Amino acid sequence: MHSDLTLDIMDNVTASLGEAFRHFSYKICVAYKTKELPKEANARRRCQSKTSNPTKEPHGTILKKTFNLRTYKFHSLDDYCRTIRWLGTTESYSTTIVGVIEIYRFSQAHKNFQGELEHRRPKGWHLRTDRRNFVKQMTRIERRQARIRRIKQKLKTGRAQAEDVSTAPEVHHHISSSQNRHEHIPSFLNAHEGDRAIQVCIVLTNLKCSSCRSRTFYQS
């Protein structure tokens, strides 16, 4: 449960955390000479041996290891409070599903892209290449898969007959009698892009608590 007050506190703590990390990186880390662990060195050499141009370094080489602030985890620290204000607390939704959520706030539409599993597809394509000019090979794989999907969709549309989905207005939902004629949700969303009937709308209602005089955003 978050309110404006707790999010303001979180903003200030995040700023203090960033200052502490920068002090640790610029003042403390430079005073120590740190190197990678033996298992990290072995893992690096195994990875290099799989590439087309492995480096020619002595087997027992241990490289210097420094604290790195230029990573996505540090870069995204400032986004947590803003995301909570837009979408609610982080346990209220899942980022494993790729999709676009349109958020209407102050009469303006904001698009938020979510997805953690999408990186698995290009990784699978990369395994099917010979590691040389892999971008072009991965692009060809993606195009072939897209053409196959379109062919399957045309064949399914030609064979399938429309199922009667007429129900009474008071019925909550309709369940099909067969799963053979399913709808591919990403293709459906692409085909109906801009249709107001399929847009997800999250309204942030600003309510004031009479007891503590704090404002809380509720998701509806």
Please write out the topology.
Layout: H1 4-28, H2 38-50, H3 72-75, H4 79-87, E1 99-105, E2 108-114, H5 120-127, H6 134-159, H7 185-191, E3 201-208, E4 215-219
Parallel strand pairs: 1-3
Antiparallel strand pairs: 1-2, 3-4
- Give the strand order of the largest sheet, numbering strands 1, 2, ... along the chain: 2-1-3-4
**Which structural class do the helices and strands define?**
alpha+beta
SS summary, helix count: 7
Round the mean pLDDT to the nearest integer and report it. 77
Distance between the termini: 15 Å
Biggest sheet layout: 4 strands, mixed
Per the principal axes of the C-alpha atoms, what is the gross shape? flat
Beta-strand residue fraction? 5-15%
What is the helix content? Answer: 40-55%
Number of strands: 4
Q: Taking Cα atoms only, what radius of gyration do you get, to the nearest Å?
A: 26 Å
Listing every helix as H and every strand as E from the N terminus to the C terminus, the arrangement reads HHHHEEHHHEE
Uncertain spans: 202-220
Q: What oligomeric state do these chains adopt?
A: single chain
